[in-house]
Amino acid sequence: MNANNFTNWDLIRYSTVLSFLIFFNYFLWSINSWEVIRFINFFLLLGTFIYFFVSKKFNNYWYLKIIVLILLLICLGTPTTAYDARTFFLFPGKILFYESNLYFRLDNYLSLINFDGHNFLDTVFSRPKLAATLSATFAQLLGFWNDIFPKSTNVIIIFSPIIFLISFFKDKVLILLWLFLMLFFSGKLFINGLMDGMLALYFVASVLIVHKISITKTEREKKLLYFLMFLLFAILSLFKHEGSIMILVILLSSIFIDFIYEKTINYKLVLTTVVSLCPIIFWRYIFLTSNSKMEFLSYGNPIGRFLDRITNTEDLFTILSFLVVNEKLIISLIIFIFFAFKYFKDNKKLIFFILANFLLYFSALIAAVLLSTHTVQYQLVASSTRIFIPLVLMLSYFSVFLINKNFKM
Question: Which of 34, 58, 244, 353 is deepest in the core (most CB within 10 A)?
């Protein structure tokens, strides 16, 4: 039997329900719904999460249950120390806990707090807040807030893409290999309160689902995948600014590959992408109408800054030096290149799709560094390890995926 034919649709349906309840929690916050409705949704989400651990249907995935429970325990047992986690995740969550208003701003303090030439609270307010809304719901349910237990909801958030990603592996060894690589490269990012681990998993899941849509023939299964794609894209865009860029990267890569191989464009994919971006577009509209500015627009001339740095050999050398010592990116790239060459003949379209996503998002990251309000050196010291994690996990996952596609038993 060829392992590439295997798909566990029970896992995909489970991931869809979990994703829907996560997204619906944000939707309830966005319409300022009654607190009791948010609580009911959270209980449904928690019940769905627990169902995986008690259902006989998923008994074969005992090792995943152990890993998730360990992550949850570590998350609950460690303080949040990372500056970005405390500032851009816990602080907004704390505001939501006390104010119960997604659009609340500390306007009375806007003229008092400044940060590197732009308003600090503008930076906090501009960030999408899906993860913070789930933490705030959990805290309101318990009736108090601290800087430890609210981030435990991040484990529930990452569970959905993990379930989806393993749903195409039948062999336990391959599932464990992927889980090992996932934890080896980014395990700390799942429990320290930062958004980068969640962002990376949803990015990989989004790349995979677009690929699966392109090869799925059954209409019923395709409809489920489109719905899950909408949820994954919507959630991805509501984590961080990078989420929207990732979605555009995936869309452009898909259009390019489809045009090369199929001589056509999947307009249903384009429409679903546009609809999934509506929540973040609405959030951007609220932000822009509040007379606030995006972070990189608040200090100096971004275009001039970009042009100065891209022609500055010292800045370019700094970027290159950080890339060379990024062992996670180098190792994952070597692994993917090895299996891409090994299985290139029968997987050209998939490999080119992954490479297109890699090159486009890699270019976007370099552009973001050059546009940063900080110096290139400072920006890379602060974030070079974690900003490349989405690419690291994508290369790692699809290396295992290529093994699975060509594995016969």
Answer: 353
